[in-house]
Amino acid sequence: MTTTTRGFATIQQRDLVNQIADMLTEALLKGDFAPGVHLAEAQLARDFGVSRAPVREAARLLESRGMLVSQPRRGFFVRTFNADELDDVYDLRLCLERHAIRLLAGKLTAGMEAALSDQLETMRRVARNGTAVQQIEEDVAFHRMLCEFSGNHRLVRVFDELCHEMRFCILLIGQLYDDALRVADTHEPILEALRTRSPEAGEAALDYHIGVAQQRVVEMFRERAKG
Amino acid sequence: MTTTTRGFATIQQRDLVNQIADMLTEALLKGDFAPGVHLAEAQLARDFGVSRAPVREAARLLESRGMLVSQPRRGFFVRTFNADELDDVYDLRLCLERHAIRLLAGKLTAGMEAALSDQLETMRRVARNGTAVQQIEEDVAFHRMLCEFSGNHRLVRVFDELCHEMRFCILLIGQLYDDALRVADTHEPILEALRTRSPEAGEAALDYHIGVAQQRVVEMFRERAKG
DNA sequence: CGACTGTCGAGTGTCGACAGTTTGGAGATT
DNA sequence: AATCTCCAAACTGTCGACACTCGACAGTCG
Asked: Which keywords belong to this entry (chains A, B) (predicted)?
């Protein structure tokens, strides 16, 4: 959080574009728009009570995040995913996190370890009494920490992009965690491997953890496409 | 090239936004704008002879590609790179290509091998009589093929983004290849390793090849920042 | 009956304009 | 001389409007 010299939080210059982008994102994740449907600028502008200009820019933003696609002279459409694309996303995500773990294993500090441990505790807490969305967010936050602690900021940016897409697909499926507490526990081996400072052990733990999730999510997604 | 049933090339619907984005990209890569300088929409609009709307959208596009950054109420600025950021880009690029090689080693077809071999030949040709820009493009094309043949389309997209940034930095440095022919030759071991279908050998060849480039480019970039 | 053509509504691409903000400098003050 | 204040110019964010394009539907001709 950026702060002024007096310690006040700076007033967020949340212009219309970002507000609209956030609202659209939320609507997309809530499933208000079916994949593939056309988003008319003028209609959205009326809905939000603004002109088309900021709507266009917000849509472009979401396009760059892979949530919308545009066709010349036809406008914006909600991004459609197929199971293969989702599989690619998970594959790439694993690639990134493996790399992050490899980097991280060589320079894990006590502070990082504590932060990861805390995050795991948070996951367990929301697993007991939290919404599905919260559970997903805290899960993502753990993995994001791994990326952050790797020290490669560019990697984090790509990870964030992939997360947007995974979230999109997961919430499209409906529900993911039948036993959130058990899912939270499966992160323990990753942290355990990191404590041994062994890149190989870390990669192995990740391979298993993400591999299971990938298989499960992609499978559910493939089923949903059929039914 | 898409064609109609009679063989006509489809008319490119190149709207202003894409044209402007391309021209801006070219100008940035040519070094017409120093890193960090402010790009005024109205001025660009006058230069291009259009209104501000398409200029804004083009700028947003370049922002999403990481070539510009924007600040609320202040507008767009040419992205500045420091050596550490460039190092991150190369680090991530190696991560991606290692993954691509790993995937590719298991399913290399004769067609893929021939394509890579051809591309290597093209590199040698432009190394003898081609511009520095051509040499870089053909070099990138070889590595892009590796990503494409991996079968993970999402990976290719990220690779393309990283390439934009690397190109930006490399052309900022001025020149890269003192001996382009030798550089082209250093790709041979990668192809050779792939022929043995060994993921480990492929990764090792890549590690060396990209490691050398990374060290060299980042070093040159760091020097330039000082002088 | 089928294929082509003209028309119409919806929607995007682009433009010029206005309001509020930021910036840089002239002038005043210490 | 250095710093502060205030103002004007420049710039961004947003808006409403217009022209052109696309897709659909009805009508026409073979």
From this structure: DNA-binding, Transcription, Transcription regulation
